[in-house]
Amino acid sequence: MKFKTLKKDDQDVEPQEEDVDVKKLLKIKGKKKKRIYGKRIDSKTEKGRYIKSKLPKDSYGDIAIDATLRAAALSSDGEISVKGEDLRHKIRKHGARASIVMVVDISGSMFSDRKANRLKGILNSVIEDANRHQDRISVIGFKGEEAEIIIPTTRRATSYREQVDNIRVGGTTPLAAGMKKGLEILKKEKLRAEFVPLLLILSDGMPNVGLEEGPMKDAIMMAEKIKEKEIHTVVINFEKSVRYGHEVNMEIALASGGRYYDLEELKDPGGVIAKILDYEREEI
Q1: Which Gene3D superfamilies does UniProt cross-reference here (predicted)?
Q2: How far apart are CA 173 and CA 205, in angstroms?
Q3: What integer pLDDT is reported at residue 137 of this predicted model?
Q4: Domain end among 93, 109, 125
């Protein structure tokens, strides 16, 4: 079985943003959801804007000095003396960010130099865009019999460029395994209230390895499970494929309650990915 990496000896060309209306690339819109991205939510850390104070659960934490002094003044007679019961902690808020899981086809169907470099351009564009928006991102590749984590969930994905360059493409196409791994990660990310889950699937829609019932049936079943967990899903076809591949991708988008973009006619799909992600942030 042959494998190759995405890395090339010649100089890489940076993706150029194409002057394209992304709405025309959107073929399936999915169900409209309540927007959370960018909304002010309680911060779990000491970052974010200080909004108000609260009684602390313990003596450690982000102390609100102003509120603490006010509480001490109310209970003091003359000179202010701060007691344990006067302590107040800060409630901070910040804009909700996305946690993006990118599930990518790195099977033998991506073996040509053209396909491999289009894929690399898209990967780097998504990573740069997530970094610019301070989103979390992870990248999962599927090939052979399983899915593998190429980039673990992080807000510093730009430090993983070498992993992207050294992705080895080849083998069969276990799409359902990639979707399952993506769902597992986003189920955990959903527990973090400050991040909105977004599943991004890049595939030619030609699965040939299943989990239990068969390649196609398993992929649809995984899409239905993703829908049950209310995870915003975007399926992207970025390469010319047979009609069957388009139909499979659209079926996955429909079964997941998600959206489907067709970029096959674009000379540089990596150049329009940032526009698509910005458009999708308005939907989550």
Answers
A1: von Willebrand factor, type A domain (3.40.50.410)
A2: 9
A3: 96
A4: 93
